[in-house]
Write a structure and sequence with these properties.
Layout (H helix, E strand, L loop, with lengths): L1 E10 L2 E7 L1 H4 L7 E5 L7 E9 L4 E7 L3 H7 L6 E2 L1 E6 L10 E7 L3 H13 L3 E8 L8 H6 L3 E6 L6 E2 L2 H10 L6 E5 L2 H14 L2 E5 L15 E4 L2 E4 H4 L2 E3 L5 H8 L3 H30 L1
Parallel strand pairs: 8-9, 8-12, 9-10, 10-11, 12-13
Antiparallel strand pairs: 1-2, 1-6, 2-5, 3-4, 3-7, 4-5, 13-16, 14-15
């Protein structure tokens, strides 16, 4: 079991937790992830290591409540224990040859982009960070990203914060202004990574994307996280999660990620209904006891 030491709301449906996991903290590197199961009834889910402290023996995880398992994880409080957590898994990010880099985070992908930007910053690279969100209420990790960026660009779809537009708008502008990037790292929704990769391909800029497809065991045994890269089947859990963005078949990835959407939505709806009924029952019991 892994104890939750800190818990903080970053946005309406986004939470950051710090957990006591010294064995994972001792070996974790940027780009790697863990597989956890919050309770006995929950499923196993992958979460990227957003940060770690080797001396304190802690690992930081950031998640969005999008389904039943993340809701069950969010129901845990400081001092509660996550049932089990395995890691670090996946291949650590490789930064060789990266000296002038644009790191792009889209939505919750910012939580994965942050450790990449931090690692590059600590290696002495010049780092521009472009972070994109739908609106100001969904912005996360702005201060953290600014602290590891030479230049920070905030984009929102509706213009409610930073500049109005997409991350590709800012990236194109900076490339054409002579930024001279030798690499771009893009992490976020598959459609965002697809269009960043299409843009950088026209300029011949090396592009790395981080894949987070459907995943079960995280060790390459189930094959659930397979994707096509350069015409060859790869497993995100053991061959990645980082891949050449110019080689990924994003259309196939998007289709595969949507395969169980109806089942996921039904499961989440049933969980919320059961949770509401249980909450109502507790309130009724408390009222009867008071009476």
């Amino acid at each position: 079991m892994v104890t939750i030491l800190k818990k903080e709301k970053l946005a309406d449906t986004v939470t950051r937790i710090v957990v006591d996991a010294p064995m994972i903290a001792a070996k974790a590197q940027a780009g790697q992830f863990v597989i956890l199961r919050p309770t006995e009834e929950a499923e196993r889910i992958p979460l990227t290591v957003a940060d770690y402290d080797r001396e304190a023996g802690t690992v930081t995880l950031i998640y969005q409540i999008v389904g039943t398992t993340t809701a069950k994880l969010d129901a845990l409080a400081c001092g509660d224990a996550i049932l089990n957590m395995a890691g670090p898994l996946g291949r650590a990010s490789e930064f060789e040859g990266m000296h002038n880099v644009a790191v792009i985070g889209g939505g919750l992908g910012t939580a994965i982009a942050y450790p990449q930007a931090k690692a590059l910053h600590e290696l002495g690279a010049k780092v521009d960070v472009i972070a994109g969100f739908r609106n100001k209420n969904l912005i996360i990790l702005q201060k953290e990203m600014e602290a590891v960026a030479d230049r920070f660009f905030l984009m929102t779809d509706d213009g409610s914060a930073g500049e109005k537009g997409l991350v590709t708008d800012a990236l194109r502008r900076e490339i054409e202004a002579g930024a001279g990037y030798d690499a771009v790292i893009a992490i976020g929704p598959p459609v965002m990574m697809k269009f960043v990769s299409l843009l950088t391909k026209t300029y011949g800029i090396r592009t790395v994307v981080s894949m987070n497809p459907i995943m079960i065991d995280g060790t390459g045994m189930c094959g659930g996280c397979r994707l096509t890269v350069g015409g060859t089947v790869k497993f995100a859990c053991v061959d990645g999660p980082d891949f050449d963005g110019h080689q990924v078949d994003f259309d196939e990835l998007i289709r595969r990620n949507a395969m169980y959407r109806k089942e996921e939505e039904a499961s989440f709806a049933a969980y919320r209904e059961a949770s509401h009924e249980a909450h109502a029952c507790r309130l009724q019991t408390m009222g009867e006891e008071t009476t």
